[in-house]
Structures are given as structure tokens and as C-alpha cells.
């Protein structure tokens, strides 16, 4: 059985722990609606609301398990399907019969749900609900419904890859959100030619976050980029897009626009969005890679280093004002490059002369360089299972490289960055500038400290078996929140 634990900001009950008090220790989530088996596949977080998409248990065939979408927290803007704040997780009301939820995402006060039909040739459907600030709903709100059906028709037609006269269908491979902008990766086919991949987006665009240019190390100047509040070159605007204007600049795009068509010999490896910037990683069939980016560089979040081995990058991730690039080391292991704001320690490195094992070092405020995150050990001997960026903190799940990839007993969660709400689960609320192990914890019933000079937390006896024997499956970071999926011993 998989248990969900959470820590951090909880003003509207978004942790689903049964109350609205912040948690500086990992606390079990309360499920008002019972879920038969399954474990969290993904977790999406808005400002004060959370959604958990459950996947089938290992012994059950995916086609016999109907994915369950659970939610908790604030719904004052209609971002969830109930009126009052919910202090525990309950099922979100389904709005698409005979369709399964395949993706869930969230902006600040907006929720996105992607449904897929089991009928061949039917397109996926994306519904948005909640606030329409910066055009977040992706269309005109329906006064008779809480849900907005996001239409991609105009964006696909403007891409010119599918003739208007041709019928087509598409799958939404991914939906990625920033604070107020959204990018979707679509896989489009007309049943006649080869399928094509397209990136479309909507929402906030004033800083060029919906326009992308390629990172070229030979033409990139860190000093030039650091002195600019925008990326090195002006970005093209889509003349066909419906734009709203604010102070004479393009403020946001109300409906999805075509950003780019992925070349047929490339694939999208990773998409990440921050508060006002976007980064996309592509891989060519010959194994080479390229990086596209756009948006604000005010905090140095687009100051990529000339030393970054682009062809070894495997994924990218963003905090609000930072970018994190995961490199697969040639001899095994990994390295995480980080650039952008480090005001809360979220870059995971220090200017201090103290050794990297100290979490009391002074944080590097970043803004000018892209450098590796400083783990207190060599990452060449580790496997990185996942990396998740919250608003201003980061959580990594890793294990020793010799551990089988499907064995979770050796996995650990390491976190760093902003911790004002106790979102790293370390008992205290001080920011953490260097990677620190946040799971597994010491014996929660012992009187020893957690290694940072703070007393270990008291825990009810009923939680002892879970906390001491559980195995880490995965971890996620949200807006001032952190989530752990823990498997019971013996599962």
C-alpha cells in the first residue's frame, strides 16, 4: 500500500492533512474518498490547491484501472469542483464520460485536466477551470459551466502541418505550467501522412516566454546575458495570435498559439516553465541535443554555462526564477547544473568556505552563472530517479547506482532551498542552501536531533510502522509544499 505524506504551506488545507496549519514535518494525508489500491502518478500544485493523479498498483493491468483524480485545498476561483476549502483529499467530479484522466496540471489558481478516449482516432480533451488571469483558461469561459474546453484548432491550423481540409486527431503528450503560462506538447496525425509533434501555448507572454530561440554556446555571452532583463535576442511574435495589451506590450495570449513544430528527426525530451521563462530540450535521432529557451532573464535564469555538455542533458526543470539541467555523466551517475535566483538557497550551492556537508553555509544568490549543485558526496556513484522543482525549493530522489532501478528500499529524498513553511520537513523553517537528506528520517520516536540542531519530531505510535519501515517511491515539490509517496514494507 502506498501512503502519501506532505509538508509545508497549508493555509487552505492544500496538504490534505485534515486541517489548515502549516506542517514542518511530513504528515500523512487524509483521504476522504477511499481509493482502492494505486499510488500517486503525478501531483500538481497551485497557490493553495493540490491534485493527485493515482496510477494502478503493480499487480493490476492499467487497462482495468480507471485513474482516480483527487484534490484538496482552495476552490474560491473554481479551480476545484467544490465551493468550500477541502481539508482532505476527495475525488474530483468527472466531467468526461468514458474517458480516462492522463494528465493533470495547475497554474496559480487554475487547474488543467487532460482526458483520453478509448476510441481510436479520437483526440484528447483538455479542460481548464478556475481563474482566467492572464488568459489561463485558454479560451472564453462558459457561463453555464465551470469548465472551459481548451481548443487547439487555430494553433494547429496556423502551424500548417495539417491542411485545414484534413481531419486530424491529436494526443497531448504533456502539459507543463508556469505561474501564469502553459505549454502543451501535441502529437498530431491526419491518418494520411506521418504524425508530427507540435508545441502550443497560451497565457502570460509579455516576457517572450511563449517564443523560443535556440541556445548556441558559440554565440552566447554570459556577461551580456547577465546584464539584460530579457534573453539575448528579441523573440518573434505570432501575428495570428489574439493578443491583449498592457502598457503597450503583449501581456498574454487568450487562446493556444503555435510555438513550433518539432522536426521529424527530433523528439522532445523535456519541457520546464518558471514564473516568466520557458526551456525545452530536444534530442536528434543521432543522439545530439539542443536547448531552446525564452522569457525573462532578470534573475539569471537563462544564463547557461559554456561548460554545459548539451548532448549529455537528459531533463530540465524550473523553479520560479531558476533553471536546473540534469546531465548524465559518461562514466555513470549524474550532475545537476543550476542557474538563476539563489536568494532562498534554491541553487544548492554556497559561496562559503565551509565544506559542502554543512547546511549552515551562506547561499549563493546566483544571477550570473550556471554551476553544479553541491551534494555532500560524489553523484558519479548515484542514480537520479526524479528531480522536482517547487516555487523556490528543489527535491531530488536518488539511490546508489548499484541498486536495481525497480527496488525502492534504497531511495532517498534530498531537498534544498526555501523552507519558510517547513516545506522540507526538517522540523524547522530556516532556508536550506545545500542539499540535505529529508527522507528517510531518523527514528521519529527517538530523542536525537535531525542533524541540524533541532529536536526530532514526536510522532504518534500508530505512525511508527509506516515511518520506520516505509520505502520511498517518489517525491514532488509544489508551491511551498513537498510530497512523499511511501510504500509499506512488504509491498
Summarize the structure.
It is built from 3 helices and 29 strands. It has 491 residues and is mostly beta strands. The strands form 7 sheets. A 5-stranded antiparallel sheet has the order 11-12-13-16-15. It has a 4-stranded antiparallel sheet with strand order 2-1-29-28, with no helix packed on it.
Q: What labels describe this entry?
A:
4-stranded antiparallel β-sheet; 3 helices; single chain; 491 residues; 5-stranded antiparallel β-sheet; mainly beta
Topology, please?
Blueprint lengths: L1 E7 L14 E6 L10 E7 L3 E7 L12 E6 L12 E6 L7 E8 L3 E8 L7 E6 L17 E2 L3 H7 L9 E9 L3 E9 L6 E9 L8 E2 L7 H5 L16 E4 L2 E14 L3 E8 L3 E8 L4 E7 L17 E7 L2 E7 L5 E7 L30 E2 L9 E8 L3 E8 L11 E6 L14 E8 L24 H6 L1 E7 L3 E7 L4
Antiparallel strand pairs: 1-2, 1-29, 3-4, 4-5, 5-6, 7-8, 8-9, 9-10, 11-12, 12-13, 13-16, 14-19, 15-16, 17-18, 18-19, 20-21, 21-22, 22-23, 24-25, 25-26, 26-27, 28-29
Amino acid at each position: 500500500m502506498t501512503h502519501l505524506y506532505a509538508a509545508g504551506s497549508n493555509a487552505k488545507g492544500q496538504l490534505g492533512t485534515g486541517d489548515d496549519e502549516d506542517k514542518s514535518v511530513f504528515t500523512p494525508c487524509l483521504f476522504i474518498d477511499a481509493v482502492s489500491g494505486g499510488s500517486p502518478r503525478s501531483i500538481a500544485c497551485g497557490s493553495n490547491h493540490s491534485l493527485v493523479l493515482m496510477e494502478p498498483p503493480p499487480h493490476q493491468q492499467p487497462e482495468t484501472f480507471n485513474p482516480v483524480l483527487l484534490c484538496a485545498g482552495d476552490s474560491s476561483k473554481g479551480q476545484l469542483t467544490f465551493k468550500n476549502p477541502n481539508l482532505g483529499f476527495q475525488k474530483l467530479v468527472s466531467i468526461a464520460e468514458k474517458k480516462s484522466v492522463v494528465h493533470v496540471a495547475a497554474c496559480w489558481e487554475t487547474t488543467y485536466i487532460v482526458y483520453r478516449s478509448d476510441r481510436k482516432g479520437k483526440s484528447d480533451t483538455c479542460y481548464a477551470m478556475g481563474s482566467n488571469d492572464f488568459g489561463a483558461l485558454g479560451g472564453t469561459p462558459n457561463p453555464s459551466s465551470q469548465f472551459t474546453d481548451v481548443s487547439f484548432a487555430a494553433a494547429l491550423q496556423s502551424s500548417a502541418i495539417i491542411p485545414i481540409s484534413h481531419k486530424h486527431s491529436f494526443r497531448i503528450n504533456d502539459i507543463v505550467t508556469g505561474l501564469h503560462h502553459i505549454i502543451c506538447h501535441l502529437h498530431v496525425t491526419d491518418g494520411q501522412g506521418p504524425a508530427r509533434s507540435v508545441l502550443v501555448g497560451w497565457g502570460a507572454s509579455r516576457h517572450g516566454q511563449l517564443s523560443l530561440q535556440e541556445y548556441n554556446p558559440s554565440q552566447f555571452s554570459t556577461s551580456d546575458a547577465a546584464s539584460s532583463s530579457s534573453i539575448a535576442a528579441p523573440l518573434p511574435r505570432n501575428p495570428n495570435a489574439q493578443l491583449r495589451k498592457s502598457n503597450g506590450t503583449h501581456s498574454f495570449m487568450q487562446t493556444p498559439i503555435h510555438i513550433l513544430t518539432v522536426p521529424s528527426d527530433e523528439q522532445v525530451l523535456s519541457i520546464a516553465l518558471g514564473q516568466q521563462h520557458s526551456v525545452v530540450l530536444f534530442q536528434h535521432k543521432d543522439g545530439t541535443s539542443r536547448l531552446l529557451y525564452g522569457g525573462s532573464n532578470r534573475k539569471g535564469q537563462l544564463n547557461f554555462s559554456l561548460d554545459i555538455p548539451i548532448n549529455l542533458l537528459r531533463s530540465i526543470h524550473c523553479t520560479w526564477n531558476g533553471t536546473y539541467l540534469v546531465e548524465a555523466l559518461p562514466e555513470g551517475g549524474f550532475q545537476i547544473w543550476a542557474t538563476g535566483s539563489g536568494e532562498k538557497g534554491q541553487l544548492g550551492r554556497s559561496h562559503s568556505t565551509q565544506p559542502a556537508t554543512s547546511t549552515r553555509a551562506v547561499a549563493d544568490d546566483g544571477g550570473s552563472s550556471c554551476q553544479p549543485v553541491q551534494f555532500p558526496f560524489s553523484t558519479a556513484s548515484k542514480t537520479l530517479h526524479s528531480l522536482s522543482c517547487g516555487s523556490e525549493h528543489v527535491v531530488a530522489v536518488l539511490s546508489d547506482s548499484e541498486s536495481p532501478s525497480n527496488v525502492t528500499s534504497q531511495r532517498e529524498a534530498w531537498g534544498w532551498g526555501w523552507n519558510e513553511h517547513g516545506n522540507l520537513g526538517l522540523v524547522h523553517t530556516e532556508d536550506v542552501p545545500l542539499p540535505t537528506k529529508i527522507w528517510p528520517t531518523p527514528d521519529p520516536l527517538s530523542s536525537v536531533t535531525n542533524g541540524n540542531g533541532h529536536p526530532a519530531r514526536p510522532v504518534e505510535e500508530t505512525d511508527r510502522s509506516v515511518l520506520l519501515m516505509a520505502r520511498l517511491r517518489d517525491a514532488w515539490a509544489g508551491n511551498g509544499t513537498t510530497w512523499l509517496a511511501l510504500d509499506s514494507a512488504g509491498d
